[in-house]
Amino acid sequence: MVDNLSAIPQAGAPRPLDALRSARVALVHEWFGATGGSENVFRQISSLLPEAERFVLWKDHDAVEPNLRESWMARTPLRKTKAGALPLMPLVWRTLSQERFDLVISSSHAFAHTVRLGSSEETRYLSYVHSPARYIWSPNFDGRGSNPMLTVPRRVLQSADVRLSRHVNAYAANSEEVRARIARYWKRDAVVINPPVDVDYFAAAPAADQHQPREYLLGFGRWIPYKNFDLIIQIAEAAGLPVVIAGSGPEETALRRVAERVSVPVTFEVRPSKERLRQLYWGARALLFPVHEDFGIIPVEAQACGTPVVGLRRGGLLETVVDGETGFLIDSQDPASFVPLIHRLAELSQDRIRSHAHGFSEQQFAARMTAWIADAGR
């Protein structure tokens, strides 16, 4: 965590980034989807530097974000396949524009941190990293890129990733987990600035939502294999409690089959609205999160509603959950091992859980990001 960066400038006081008003600033993101945590980070950084030019590889057709300048790759069929586009991304970031900028800030989870929009002598390069590209550096994490036939191409891309990013002046990581990967793979240090979470919205639920009985366990996210939603259903059965599975994804049919075989009620909420998700958080006894994530915004949203988190003792949960105070962390993935922790949920204070979540607010992100840019961008 960045030290001494929590003070937010008072109204009317000079903003730390005012000195950049006369500078040419570029903000760079990978592909821009309709929804996603990395896209939200990019929006938040953009709000701090509203006059900056904003570049992306391409914008998905259902994304409505204005004023994004797309790369030449957006005019090719490669925009439809991230895997096919991956080998060409370093080239795209080196041929993005002939314009030159004084400061370039990338929001990177693939190759955006390799972008060049000016010489390393005249341009400052900062990069906020969601993760070094998992499909080339840690393919076993979620299975992408783990085909043995991709071993040689992966090594080539790893070498290019390191070689083409030597000009980056400073890195920020979204978690201690990602900071460790940056050190391991790129041999660089980074400050940690956790992503912004809209805790104010989730905490300020209508009274009817806040006073509903907490009767079920909740799992929320994208329904893909490494998110372990089948395990969430099995944990609920072991605990003898109903479970709500919210989200969407390609595993829906398989998960519905799992649900048919268990003895507890399983309710599917497909693509819940933000308002409905807030209702679901407030009505849950606990959010089950047995997954290894880089950071994990969902557990913070749940805690903003006073909902404890029960999940794995690894990754981002080590930063977002205070074990024994705002939830419980466990090393095992045996469904029966979760049951004693679920029986202890009444020991936890909802007020303590909600107050902890406010440390990850959008205001905290803005203050820390502003201080980092002002310091590292000089």
From TrEMBL:
Residues 36-200 form the Glycosyltransferase subfamily 4-like N-terminal domain. Residues 214-350 form the Glycosyl transferase family domain. Pfam families: Glyco_transf_4, Glycos_transf_1. It is an enzyme of class 2 (transferase). Keywords: Glycosyltransferase, Transferase. It comes from the Bacteria. InterPro entries: Glyco_trans_1, Glyco_trans_4-like_N, Glycosyltransferase_grp1. Its EC number is 2.4.-.-. Transmembrane segments: none annotated. One of its GO terms (molecular function) is glycosyltransferase activity. PANTHER family: SULFOQUINOVOSYL TRANSFERASE SQD2. This is Glycosyltransferase. It comes from Micromonospora trifolii. The lineage of its organism: Bacteria, Bacillati, Actinomycetota, Actinomycetes, Micromonosporales.
